[in-house]
Design a protein that fits this description.
- The structure is a single chain.
- The protein has about 140 residues and is of the alpha/beta class.
- It has 2 domains: about 30 residues; about 90 residues, Nucleotidyltransferase, domain 5.
- The chain has 3 helices and 7 strands; from the N terminus they run H-E-E-E-E-H-E-H-E-E.
- The strands form 2 sheets. The chain has a 5-stranded mixed β-sheet. Strands 1-7 form a two-stranded parallel ribbon.
Length: about 140
């Protein structure tokens, strides 16, 4: 027995998947912009360098800001060094295979010992992809 259809149905353009993609891209843009604005709102006088390289930024990177008073800020929240150590350990466990990059933004007047404390905490949390931010002259 053969079943035949009488006429062909026209397949139209599906709008639902396109709308989903557009809203996903819009959400990504809003979140990325909000995180960048948080980072820029902290007033840190970065040191200047004659040479440097610009790397592509990743969504999973952690930005640690060190103010001239020695305060440690992550996502605009002030943390003690032991709290920072615990947060970094938790993140390292969360990202088992690919540990996120750590970006240190230290004020040029901050005590060097404070920067070394942050680096030591990163090393203890097995986060070895650490970068420093400076301003080009």
């Amino acid at each position: 027995m053969t079943f035949m259809r009488k006429g062909r149905e026209e397949v139209g353009f599906q709008m639902a998947p396109m709308i989903d993609i557009i809203f996903t891209l819009l959400l990504f843009y809003v979140v990325t912009t909000a995180l960048q604005e948080q980072e820029k709102s902290i007033t840190i006088d970065l040191p200047q360098t004659a040479e440097g390289s610009r790397d592509e930024r990743s969504m999973s990177e952690i930005v640690i800001n060190i103010t001239k008073d020695g305060d440690i800020l992550v996502y605009n929240e002030k943390h003690a060094i032991n709290v920072l150590a615990e947060k970094l350990r938790q993140l390292a466990n969360l990202y088992k295979g690919s540990v996120p990059a750590v970006i240190v933004r230290g004020d040029k007047q901050v005590n060097y010992g404070r920067v070394v404390e942050v680096l030591d905490v990163c090393a203890k949390a097995n986060m070895h992809n650490v970068s420093f931010v400076s301003i080009d002259r």
